[in-house]
Amino acid sequence: MEARDNGALKEAKDKLEKRVEELTWRLDVEKHLRVDLEVAKGQEITKLQSALQEMQEKLEQAHAAIINEKEAAKLAIEQAPPKIVEVPVVDNAKVELLTSQNEELETELGTFRTKAEDLEKKLFEIQKQSDELSREAQERDSKINELQEMIARLETNLSNMESENHVLRQQSLLASADDDNKTKQIESLESKIAILESENQVLCSNPAPAVQAVVNPEVIQPSVMKNSHQVLENGHQLGEPKMVSEEVVVPPIKNLSKQQSLTDRQQENHDILIKSLAEDRRYDNRRPAAACIVYKSLLHWHSFEAEKTNIFDRIIHTIRSSVENAESSGELAYWLSTTSTLLYLLQNTLKASSSSTKVPNRSRTATGNLFNRMVQNARSSSSGLGISNGYSGMVGRADTTSMIEAKYPAVRFKQQLTAYVEKIYGTMRDSLKREISAILTLCIQAPRAGRVRASRGSLKSIHSSALSRQASSVHWQNIVKCLNHTLETMNNNYVPPMIIRKTFSQVFAFMNVQLFNSLLLRRECCSFSNGEFLKAGLQELEQWCSRTTEEYAGTSWDELQHIRQAVGFLVLHQKSHKTLEEITDELCPVLSISQIYRIGTMFWDDKYGAQGLSQEVIGNMRTMTTDDSITTPNSSFLLDDDSSIPISLDDIARLMLDINPTDVEPPPLLRQNSQFHFLLQQHTD
Fold first, then answer.
1. Terminal C-alpha separation, the chain
2. What does the DSSP 8-state code read for residue 591?
3. Alpha-carbon Rg of the chain, whole angstroms?
4. In sequence order, which residues have a C-beta less than 8 Å from that of residue 598 and are 6 or more positions away?
5. In 80, 489, 542, 600, which residue has its Cα 20 to 30 A from 89's Cα atom?
6. DSSP letters spanning 427-481
7. 369's torsion region: left (phi>0), alpha (psi -120 to 50) or beta?
8. What is the pLDDT of residue 85?
């Protein structure tokens, strides 16, 4: 135990000794540091003392300089000459007079300033009025130019329509006259043909040299008919020769058979063309192939210059049956593209013929007319088979000298084709209207869950309002889907953009009428929350117009001006601070006073409980509405839907379609037929 204690004491002694040595070392270090610090402080003190001495010296020098300057200034003042100041004598009367005059001038200056401010205000108003007048003058000038262009186009169209109507009147008179005599002419012609055939057999069996047979395919003289009757009446039997003293003209029986074969061949060509029109629904370089092929065939056969032909009626019948049996909007869009393209080609190719209005000479005999028509048909058939071809390639030239003078069948065909373009357009537009109208009834009024006041903002109401907004936005998206489907259908069938623009413009005008009239007729629709609901839906339509571009949307967004301004009024804050001029000129310039008055009186804020228009504004509008009802008693604040067809022949002529019918490749049905090789020749050329 003692040894252990001694060992412990020894260890403690060693630790204490080490501690003492460490403390001693630290003490020495601190002493050295203190010495160094005192030395540094001494050096710094000496530096500061020297700097203080320098500053004191500079201060003493500055004091000395100031004293010297003061002494120099005193000497300069003493040596300067005395200055004499003249004090003017003040006339109090003149001073008072001047002060009174000054006050009068100040008052006049104030009046001048007020007058100048008034003049500036009047000048600003006059400048504003002049700017408005200049804008109105520019708009009037532009409208005058547009009206002048429209008048020029209408004059040309009127002249064409007058000539076409004249043609139609003359042809209707001729048709009525022909209908009255048709039966008698046919009977007489058949009997005379039978007589001529029997006479031809008699003359052919007679080898007498005095009988001369002259073949004339164009004219049979009336004397020949008379002589042939005499031959049969005198009882000459077959095989009984008789000398004939005068020349006998024999009808060309061989040419008749040839003419009949040409007519049959032409009928076969018509059948093949009609079959191709009904079955070939291709597009060649964004153009309906059937329209170009029909146009080239009619032009090659000179059908536009024919007095009588049934090919146009057969084409119209094919189009009518196809349109009536169409099962989808895609088929209607195809026929709209085909008929509008064909009408464009006709409009830029045909012109009314003045010669077709002349009444043909009815003094000719029925037999002569029969053979003349047969010869003319033979010529047209031979030209249709490749004997002459006047086709020049591109259409759409403005030179009227190169246009074809259309006869009555071609003019009637163009009118029927125009009617079918309007009919198909109206059918597609009305179908889209009906489809949108069913959805539009769900978009007029916001759901009830969305019209909860903000003060009742529980979690359940917020969740239900969010669901209702999502469900209501689906209806607007369904309208956008309908518009996209129609646009895609028309684009896939290459309907001209002008027709697409007019379709959507009229559909948007229809939506404007439906939505705006619903606001004016239903008070529950004239609320603040319903205005927000309609504003969100209109934003969907605006985004669709911006995505679709102006090429297809056109002025569709501008057609919604009434509902846009009405919705802007519903969602406007602080309506009570607005004046009547601000509402009519800035907020709702398109709406009438009666329409604004009705919306303003039916408005109710179901979200914030704010007030509507001020009583002064409502009273002024009530007075103006009463005055308007007295001056125009039959006026209505509701809008009317425009169901007219805004497509004219002038619009069709200005389509500027890039169409060259010679580039269209014919279908296999026509390529395999030798009668339609002219299509292949034009295609290779």
1. 134
2. S
3. 52
4. 520, 637
5. 80
6. HHHHHHHHHHHHHHTTTSS--GGGG--GGG--HHHHHHHHHHHHHHHHHHHHHHH
7. alpha
8. 59
Angle at 181 between CA 365 and CA 316, to 5 degrees: 110
Q: Which residue intervals of 82-221 are DSSP H helices?
A: 92-205
* Closest-CA residue to 269 (of 675, 680, 679): 675
* Count of Cβ atoms closer than 10 Å to residue 609 Cβ: 11
Tell me the C-alpha distance between 71 and 230, whole Å: 168
- Where on the phi/psi map is residue 294: left (φ > 0), alpha (ψ -120 to 50), or beta? alpha
Alpha-carbon distance values, 30 to 23, 24, 39, 42, 610 (Å): 10, 10, 14, 18, 84
Residue pair 572/610 in contact by the 8 Å Cβ criterion: no
pLDDT in tens, 385-435: 332 333 344 454 444 446 888 888 988 999 999 999 999 999 999 999 999
**H or E element, residue 25:** helix 2-79
Q: Note the pTM of the prediction, 2 decimals.
A: 0.59
Q: Which residue has the tokens 């095989």?
A: 239
Q: Which two tokens stand for residue 324?
A: 């009536």
Alpha carbon dihedral 583, 587, 588, 590, in 10-degree steps, equals 130
Dihedral sign from CA coordinates of 548, 554, 556, 561: positive
- CB atoms under 10 Å from CB of 495, counted, come to 27
Tell me the helix, strand and coil percentages in the chain, rounded to 5: 75, 0, 25
CA distance 216 to 422: 49
Classified as helix, coil or strand, 237 is coil
Q: Return the SS3 of 530.
A: helix
- Quickly count: other Cβ atoms within 10 Å of residue 381's Cβ: 22
DSSP, collapsed to helix, strand or coil, labels residue 404 as strand
Pair 550, 504: CB distance under 8 Å:
no
**Spatial contact of 347 and 414, defined as CB atoms under 8 Å apart:** yes
Q: What pLDDT digit, counting tens, does each position of 264-276 carry?
A: 777 888 888 888 8
Going by the DSSP 8-state scheme, the letter that residue 384 receives in this structure is I
Would you give the DSSP letter of residue 527?
B
